[in-house]
Every structure is written in structure tokens, then in C-alpha cells.
Amino acid sequence: MGIGHRKIRLISIGSKGQLGRSIEAVCRTHPSIEYLGLDRAQLDIREQGALESYLRTRPSSLPSVVVNCAAYTSVDAAESHEGEAYAVNAYGAGYLAYSALMSDLMMIQISTDYVFDGSATSPIAEDAEPSPLSVYGETKYMGEYNVRHLLGLRGLVLRTSWLYSPYGVNFVHRMRELAQGHKQLRIVRDQIGSPTYAPHLAEAIVRLALVAVQEGCFRAQTLHYAGAGACSWYDLARATIELGGYDTEVVPITTAEYPTAARRPAYSVLSSERIGSLYGIEPQPWIEGLREYYRHIGRDQHTQ
Ligand SMILES: NC(=O)c1ccc[n+]([C@@H]2O[C@H](COP(=O)([O-])OP(=O)(O)OC[C@H]3O[C@@H](n4cnc5c(N)ncnc54)[C@H](OP(=O)(O)O)[C@@H]3O)[C@@H](O)[C@H]2O)c1
Hints:
The structure is a single chain. By secondary structure, the protein is of the alpha/beta class. The protein has a domain at 8-169 and 195-227 and 269-285: Rossmann fold. The protein has helices at residues 18-28, 50-57, 75-78, 82-102, 135-151, 171-181, 198-215, 233-244, 273-279, 286-303; strands at residues 8-13, 33-38, 64-68, 106-112, 155-160, 163-164, 184-188, 192-193, 196-197, 222-224, 231-232, 249-253. It has a six-stranded parallel beta sheet with strand order 2-1-3-4-5-10, with helices on both faces. Bound molecules: NADP nicotinamide-adenine-dinucleotide phosphate. Residues 14, 16-20, 40, 44-46, 69-73, 88, 92, 110, 112, 140, 160-163, 168 line the site of NADP nicotinamide-adenine-dinucleotide phosphate. Residues 14, 16-20, 40, 44-46, 69-73, 88, 92, 110, 112, 140, 160-163, 168 line the site of NADP nicotinamide-adenine-dinucleotide phosphate (NAP).
């Protein structure tokens, strides 16, 4: 595909979250990228014009891509904190897109499988109609709309699902923690999705940014990237327990047996075909992501 070596600036917003930290790790070793990571203390996306103001203090002649990793990600808490979730996920994303427009930057907005209602029975393509079941899903869908509307092909909505990484708290991390104090874990088996290893997603994001700068726009307004294949939370928990060598039994339960504030889709497997055909980016099987996760934390333990 001939990804050029033209230097670019990648501006990561929400840089201390698990995807933000994964992107930083990829950028730090990439010769073509000048990395600028902004965490919540440096840039609160709820403030209109915050990015433009910040960039005035850090001018650069390099073509830049903003990646919005900042989000209100507590799916259940969003049900009772609707205003806060909208402020970050919907309006905040819109403010960033407007700043990108004004500052002539391209932007990648990260979105979620939870914009779908779970009624699909086969991997979901980008043009399927969203119909969120939760406040979180609604706010993310509105964020998508704002980015598409303001930026056209200078913006990309990149949906992913079931994200985990060696950084911060996520499902895999929680399973490992629980396994240490429990003989048995009861985990939902009737929600199906695709676990995605954030460092793999981060590599895809960097490639998309490099190609977009070379070409002046994205090749699509919406793309999906998720670990290949599908499983239930129960399957993911079992794989986490097995690969981690824990002696804990995992028992399948139904969603009805584990009520939560937010409704979640029963099936939210994203098809990553389009990103494959347009960019040659092929996500690895989800189990490979989990193996890579364990290799990573193993390396960390050895270097501590
Ligand atoms: N996690 C998943 O399973 C999943 C699945 C599908 C899609 N996604 C999407 O993937 C993206 C990255 O998710 P993640 O798992 O990396 O999330 P995360 O670990 O929760 O990180 C989100 C980051 O956003 C920051 N943030 C929150 N409000 C902000 C604000 N007003 N201004 C600036 N920063 C703010 C948070 O800072 P504080 O920690 O200080 O609050 C945190 O560092 C999000 O768009 C999410 O919706 C996630």
C-alpha cells in the first residue's frame, strides 16, 4: 500500500485511558510520528474551543490527526448520569470535530458496538442502522453523528468492541483479580461480541492516520475494527482463566441472572471486512489478542 514516511503529528485526546496509553506505546517507537498526548487535566473535551486554544500554544507545521480516545465509558453509571455522558460523548466529540475543522486537522473518533441493539444474527457492517439500548450507546451515536456531519471524509468514526489492554481496569483485568480470591465465577453467556486487544487497535489507528495524511482524507466515514471471531463474556472469562493458569471454575449464567442498570446488546459482533478491503488491515483472532496480553504482562512482571 506504500505508507509514506512523511512525518505527521498524532494528537491523542484522553491519552491516559487504556486506548490512549496503547496508542502512546505504538507512537513512541514509530519514526514517522510526532506524538502529542493530552489527558483530561490538559484538555477537557467538554470545553468548546479547548483544542484550538491548546494548539495555539503548541504550533507545528506537521500535518496532524486528532484521535479522540476520551469518553465517558461507565456504561451502567451513564444511565443515572445522562447529562455528564452526553457532555463528553456527544457534545465533547462535536466540539473536538469543530476544532479539527477550524484548525484543518483530520480526526478519528472512537465509537462502540453498543450503538447497535443486538438483534443482528451475523457480523454487523458499517451501514447497519444503529439503535442503541443504553444512554452510553445513545451518547456515542450522537458523537458519531457530530463528527460525520462536521468533517465528512476528513473525519473517521472507528467502532470497536469489548476493549481490554494491560493498562487500567477492563473485563480481562477484573477476571484475573476475581480469580485470585474466588473458587467460582458466574459469567454471562448470552451476550456475544468480539474482544479487542487495545494495542492491536492502536496499531490500526496509527496506520489509518498515516495513510489519511498521505491521501488528504479517509477512504470511508465509518469503519469497524474488532478482534476476529466471536465469543460470549463466559468464553472470554474461561480463556482468561485458562491462559492465566488460575484454578477457578467459570459457570455460565444468563443476562437475566445478572441484572445491570444499562441494557446491553445480546449480539454485537462487528464485521471488520471493510477496513480489510479498503486498507488491508486484518484484525487477528481475539484469542491471539489475549495471548499477546499475557505475553505483555509477563514481560512487565519480569522487568519489575
Ligand atoms: N472499553 C470498552 O470496552 C470499549 C468498547 C467499545 C468502544 N470503546 C470506546 O473506545 C474508546 C476508548 O475507551 P477506553 O476503554 O480506552 O476508555 P477509558 O480507559 O475509560 O479511557 C477514557 C479516558 O477518557 C478520559 N476522559 C473522560 N472524560 C473526559 C473529558 N471530559 N475530557 C478529556 N478526557 C476525558 C478519561 O479520563 P479520567 O480517567 O480522568 O476520567 C480516560 O482517561 C472510547 O471512545 C470508548 O467509548 C470502549
